[in-house]
Amino acid sequence: MDTTVNKIGTYSFVAEPFHVDFSGKLTLGVLGNHLLNCAGFHAEERGFGMATLNEQHYTWVLSRLAIEVEEMPHQYEPFTIQTWVENVYRLFTDRNFAILNKEGKAIGYARSVWAMISMEDRKPIDLLTLHGGNIAEYICDKPCPIDKPGRIKVSTQEPVALHQAKYSDIDVNGHVNSIKYIEHILDLFPLERFRQQSVRRFEMAYVAESYYGDTLSFYQESKDGNEQDIEVRKNGAEVVVRSKVIFV
Amino acid sequence: MDTTVNKIGTYSFVAEPFHVDFSGKLTLGVLGNHLLNCAGFHAEERGFGMATLNEQHYTWVLSRLAIEVEEMPHQYEPFTIQTWVENVYRLFTDRNFAILNKEGKAIGYARSVWAMISMEDRKPIDLLTLHGGNIAEYICDKPCPIDKPGRIKVSTQEPVALHQAKYSDIDVNGHVNSIKYIEHILDLFPLERFRQQSVRRFEMAYVAESYYGDTLSFYQESKDGNEQDIEVRKNGAEVVVRSKVIFV
What pTM value is reported for the model? Predict the structure, then answer.
């Protein structure tokens, strides 16, 4: 039991005033940011963080993210994020999260899938042989009771919105940052929708990078009314990200 | 001396990976968010915070913000924000800030001007009589060696950009949030400008509120090449905010 507890990183937050939406609930973009930060803290504490990896010219690349939340923290409410490694494969690792409210009750879970690449040739690194294979020592069997990220397929050829990538979209790697895509995708929906419904599940598949000045086009398809699939392409061609938003 | 120290609130941060721009430096929007949070923490600790005020149906309204930074914190660097009250007038109070790097050296300062209004009739509250005048006990004479916010005047009638206010722009009061204006204003400038120059000083004057669906038009005027004045109007009419950006 003790070893399980040691494998879980626990980090505390408060829902800040500029991090909540019109309804006073934490935004999904901010929650995503916190999740990715927790992944970073947890990995760094175990010798697999960006700072350490960058010295070796390796870097983590986020491939998939799925978040399910029953009740978002409200403005000024403290909350906690737990994170742990579920699996390590040759080319990917699964990292899961639990989001706990101030009473310690799980109000949501998240799943993420990561690859590691060389910063020199962008080729994937074999995770099972890295550091003599010791990344596998961190695997933890804590349950994460939400579905794995699924396949997202959008066939419409008519974009619903365009956005040219600007200064504030770009991260330190020169790419549109993972969190900004979440904001832009949620901005496809009218405010009224968020008044009547909540986002129960949100999935992102990061397929390719986009850059400053790229024109992002957003293609949207309703599966049933509550399930919305979105594909973002750059400059009318290559798919950059796919997303699924499930409202309840 | 001891009483001066007690009047200053000190809060610690780290420049998170998704809070830095393409050059690895903390964004001005995130710094602005931290400043406003620190104002909130400091006021709350002294019985003048939003949570306490809202019970009395009063609220703080940010009127002016001026930030000067010599060297922004870089990704993963810890930094500290100090805040204190410089003046209390009948209708406004001046709150200042110092931004310290990890060695404790001041790397920037900020000034803000706030009013308090009744949430029922939106009328201003007399700060000098509030709580028996005890807000004045927090006045502190720590120096803030940057200019006060000045007058900003834009006369061009030709907007350089339009933005329709979306879900992620809107805060819990139903207004476009103070930080989002900062992001949208900086997004008027090409990335190349931020590669060659830094923002040395940034000023915001919050004049009126804008709402979901409002079309914001951005009018921009170059004073000399390095000093840029911006005015944002809603729906082609009323001025919402004015801003001055000084590059070096």
Answer: 0.94
